[in-house]
Amino acid sequence: MVARSPQGKTVYDVVRNDVPMRHWTILAQDPSILGAGGKALTTTVRVPSERLERGPKGFRVHVIDYDASSDTFYRARDKNIDTDPYVKVTDIEKLVRDPYFHQQNVYAIAMATLQAFEGALGRTVPWGFPTPSHQIKVAPHAFADANAYYSRESESLNFGYFPDQDGKQVFTCLSHDIVVHETAHALLDGLRSHYLLPSSTDQAAFHEGFSDIVALLSVFQSQPVIDRLLAPLTARNGRLAPGNLTASKLGGTHLAELAEQMGAALSGVPTSALRTSLSIRPDKRHYTSARFEEEHDRGELLVAIVLGAFFEVWARRLKPLLQGHPDGLARAVVSEEGTTAASQLLRIMIRALDYMPPVDLTFGDFLSALLTADLQLYPDDTRYRYRDILKHSFESYGVSPASHGRSDGAWDPPRASEFTLAGTHFERMQRDPLEVFRFVWENKAALGVEPNAFTRVTSVRPVMRISNDQTVLRETVAEYVQQLTVYGSELTHMGIRRPEGMPTNRLINLYGGGTLVFNEYGLLKFHIATGVKSPRQSDRLQSLWDRGYFAKQPSASARIASLHRDRVLRPHPSFKEAW
What we know:
Layout: E1 2-4, E2 10-13, E3 21-27, E4 42-48, E5 61-63, E6 66-67, E7 72-73, H1 92-97, H2 99-121, E8 136-144, E9 148-151, E10 156-163, E11 169-171, H3 176-191, H4 201-220, H5 223-230, E12 239-240, H6 247-250, H7 253-261, H8 273-278, H9 295-318, E13 329-330, H10 331-351, H11 363-377, H12 386-396, H13 426-429, H14 433-442, H15 444-447, E14 454-466, E15 472-487, E16 507-518, E17 524-530, H16 536-546, H17 556-569
Parallel strand pairs: 2-4, 5-8, 8-10
Antiparallel strand pairs: 1-2, 3-4, 6-7, 9-10, 10-11, 12-13, 14-15, 15-16, 16-17
Helix pairs in contact: 2-3, 2-10, 3-4, 4-9, 4-10, 5-10, 9-10, 9-12, 11-12
């Protein structure tokens, strides 16, 4: 929900109306995007109030401003830590030169992103660290380099800084979408730790693509950014003509111009996703095309799909408002519908994580998860048809739902008669991994669990979600993961294709697993699984072999840092010749 603060700045009503809230001033995008008169384009995020220590340091986010390149520790504010001194600051240079503002910017955006995830999922979200820890460390000036990354091993978000072509210092910690992007990496890792395992191109691309999507939709929730986008389409009377309220116009050349301005000095780090994805036009051959086999390109394809859906949803929301208004709509109305569309799509994207397999995902899985997640809270989608728009957008790029049992593409519920609850206690099954493992054990055959693989229940999460019309959805979401270690020589006997050149004496880890979704009465609603002997294993092993992952296996944080580094080094492709 979007509201207005007393200062007239946008407020994201991200979650939890039952606790005191606090407002923090942040940059709406980055220092290169300015407001009227060259003033700083700021906005305000609204997050739950908490006791703060110097840093800022809260119960989930701890800003530690240490620069490893210069071995410098920047002091944090030690007075009035819980107040916002930047409410009336409009001088962009003052904000850029102030390290205290940098610290506030990363703290507030990281907390707002965390609250967006928890609000959408209906529960708290853990960080994905090797040892349990409640606080993520955030370094706004971590090193002198054009990069930013999440590190699972050091439990941190790290933001670099570097000089632009004119020698002016650029700080990645001041880019809204970069901070959200890295925070989304950390949250996705906490929810689906196996998505950082080497796997197919889709899984390798998903971490980057999903984090880009969260970042861009978060930026589009900001009314100042949307107003900036709409300004060239607005007539002198402050209204937008009907011809300017189509999806192609809203996401057309003016957005491309804004994308070029967004972090022009930040080319190569995560913010470049918008510019690249806008150039990818719908084509059903894309998903299977060699052009998108590389994981960076595949991730940008996913961003293009969701951006297309966003502009279609925005235009669909405006259509009924145009009735009786032949001269168009006021910019404020169009802007509010845009921020609403971004907010609601973001919640659908996040909720979909609960309906995805825990390992070896595909984009088709993500599409079926999106459709299922929205269907559970909003069975009646006839007004704006979000699900039809999402399904059409994915299919226009060649991605079909992984679920083939339903015409709408959502996951097909299992037959309740095939499962037994013998020996299980649902009250304990809502929180106890051992109790869920008992359910898996008693239903191995019905679930299709590989009996010879090591099986472990990795998480159990009770959730309560509330829709816009106050519909309450209570579920328990649990995940189990299987691992089977075999020699290369055994793959053929298991129906799995061994990559050409792979030694027969090499030990291979095969991963599988499933997501179990129980309703409020303890009955299984969904089982979304991939087996250790599934046909996907052939494609997974071939993808890993082609990319050299069996020769070296970098850590999770090294893989993320490398993905971002590759964005800097590789040229942005041109797609104009394809259509």
